[in-house]
Amino acid sequence: MKGLELTHTYGEMMIDKLPDILFSFFVLIVFWLIARLSKLSILKVLSQHTTNTNVATILASIIKNIIIIVGFITSLGTLGINVSGIIAGLGISGVALSLALKDILSNFVSGLLIFIHEPFKIGDNIEIEGKSGKVKSINLRYVTIQSDNQDILVPNLISASKIVIINPKID
């Protein structure tokens, strides 16, 4: 008899919580749709302003993931779960990661700025910090300059924050 009462109590509890669970899923789906629309909008806008689609894709994906995380936390809150601990944990993790990856993040952000503003392009002859040569490639971490028989990797932080001399192209 006791097993029947226990099952009946769980069943009643599930029925009582069903509207909250459905609303939580609805909130999560709404945030997911907003994230997808944001990603598509960002891709459309950035593709009109930059020739490099990698930057647009990376930024759009980062923003989409942030919106989904906020949606997940919001949906947990609608279930009555105390999310303050989760938010505090995310904040502490973010600070720890940003301190640990400071140089990498600086190069990444500088790489984004180089892709967006395009101060120089592949094939340009440039001089940075006394190193000169032809720009062979640009990625999110460094600029590769070909000089004589060697490749010089210049971190994007230096390329974006130091004086860069751009010489006319020599064909």
So how many helices? 5
Low confidence ranges: none
Total strands: the figure is: 5
Q: List the helices and strands in order.
A: HHHHEEEEHE
Provide the fold topology.
Blueprint: H1 2-49, H2 53-78, H3 84-100, H4 102-117, E1 125-128, E2 131-138, E3 142-147, E4 150-155, H5 156-161, E5 164-167
Antiparallel strand pairs: 1-2, 1-5, 2-3, 3-4
Helix pairs in contact: 1-2
Core attributes:
171 residues, alpha+beta, five-stranded antiparallel beta sheet, 5 strands, 66% helix, elongated
Question: Could you characterize what this model shows?
Answer:
The protein contains 5 helices and 5 strands. The chain has 171 residues and is an alpha+beta fold. A 5-stranded antiparallel sheet has the order 4-3-2-1-5. A hairpin with a 2-residue loop joins β3 and β4 (150-155). α1 (2-49) runs antiparallel to α2. The protein is elongated, with a radius of gyration of 25 Å.
